[in-house]
User: What shape does this take?
Amino acid sequence: MDQIILVGSILAVIVIMVIIAIVMSVALLWVRAYASQAPVRIWSDLIGMKLRRVPPQQVVLTYISAIKAGIEVSTGMLEAHYLAGGSMQNVVRAMIAADKANITLKFQQAAAIDLAGRNIIEAVQTSVNPKVIDCPDPTKSASGMLDAVAKDGIRLLIKARVTVRTNLESLVGGATEDTIIARVGQGIVSAIGSMPSYKDALENPDAISRRVLESGLDAQTAFEIVSIDIADVSVAGVGQIANVGAKLEADRAEADKIMRQAEAEGRRAMAIAEEQEMRARVQKMQAKVIEAKAEVPLAMAEAFRKGNLGVMDFYKMENIMADTSMRESLSGDNDEGEDNK
Assistant: This one.
């Protein structure tokens, strides 16, 4: 019986010593929180954190900084965010920075942004101090310039700077900087393309900025566009095609020329073929005439045999033919004389 009491006493002492050790491990942290007017409970909070495998020191220090900054948050909220895989320190720091800048940022919103993989501290800093984005992105563009063409065909090179600040309300699920750059680039190219002359873009670059800003390019994005500034606009250099309109017109004229030449060559070939056909027809008709002339003596001989044509008739016909030939020769001589005069 005495041995059982002794064993029980030893076990009780061990349990008490373990409890005391656990309490002592968090006692200093509890005192620090109490002195900072951010009281926590030893058993349900500090020892419970150890059982839940949550670092109590990180939670308490973060909780103290939040309370001292006037942020309404509880240790349970911090624990839940830690267990969800978030950074409670970044969330509290972002909330403190937002509170100092008079920006409304609730813990649930900040935690959602942090869990979404966004840098909540950088987002708040960008809301306070807007940042500048180059358009186009120099790291993704070989020339670092946008390429646009006005209505008169002149090619322009443009570089813009976009000032944005974070829109915390749409940061979760909103489009990133790449979307802003793409939309601004598209807006600038469209604005220049609608200008009658490249001179309008060179004289009034602010007109481009106003038109792009009026397009509402920051819709459904994580940013709010503060301003769009045209940093550089110039006509394409000597080594590049500056007058795209003239180049297109020249190419079109050359294509029309080649087409017209082909059509003319086709008509020429058809004319040559038609000429050859007409010559063949003439030769054919001449052959028929010769053939008909060859039948005349035969017909005359047949007429002599049948008595339809007499000798005197033949002589008269010969005289008529000779007279006709003489008249034609005399008529030809007179024409030549008149031409000589």
About this structure: The mean pLDDT is 81. Residues 152 and 339 are 63 Å apart (CA to CA).
